[in-house]
Amino acid sequence: MSGKKQPIYDASECMLALIDYQDGVLDLIFEQDRRIIELNARYLAKFAQAIGIPVVLSTVGVEMGVNGPTISTIRKELPDVEEIDRSQMNAWEDAAFVDAVKATGRKKVVMAGIVTSVCLTFPAIDAMADGYQVAFVADAVGDATKEIHDTSVLRLVQAGAAPVTTIALMAEWFRDWKSPLAEAARELWVPYKEEWAAYKRDPQFAEPKGLV
């Protein structure tokens, strides 16, 4: 892991990439509560939109007919963001995706993607190799098992990506309750925490299944 320190992720320097939040991909997660993953990704999108952080949204396999589009709850928060559909597992191997990231002019990339081991890890590592600083939102992503998710988090951290969580990232983006950016946090934190608490009180997990 690089010894270079990563400074605070200032909102003015960041963009947000949301990768493969599709029903067919969410269906691969069994040992984490999918509702909380969706909740965190949705509020990240909502907060980024509210404070002017550019968002890149990508899907896999829609044009090929094997997956549906981004789930409607996240899509609703990003009405003006065009989905970039790919055939590649690694979004960083898709020219349109990379061009969209470059077009934001931001060098700090906050990534969230499912599943953790593929849709998040591959582009995060490649983005860092191309000179971007990458943070990933650990509680907005998931994988088939916690073991796979946790192992992928270790790989990401070893490669130099910074792990963050949804609420901590939102706080990092506004940082001062007197900041104009804090108003959006005041509006979002109460409904977010209410939904989060309800899910935590009554967790739900899907039954593992094969592909046939």
TrEMBL record:
Family annotation (Pfam families): Isochorismatase (PF00857)
What are the coiled-coil residue ranges? none
Q: Where is the Isochorismatase-like domain?
A: 15-166
Cross-referenced PANTHER family: HYDROLASE YCAC-RELATED
| Name this protein carries in UniProt | Isochorismatase family protein
Species of provenance: Streptomyces niphimycinicus
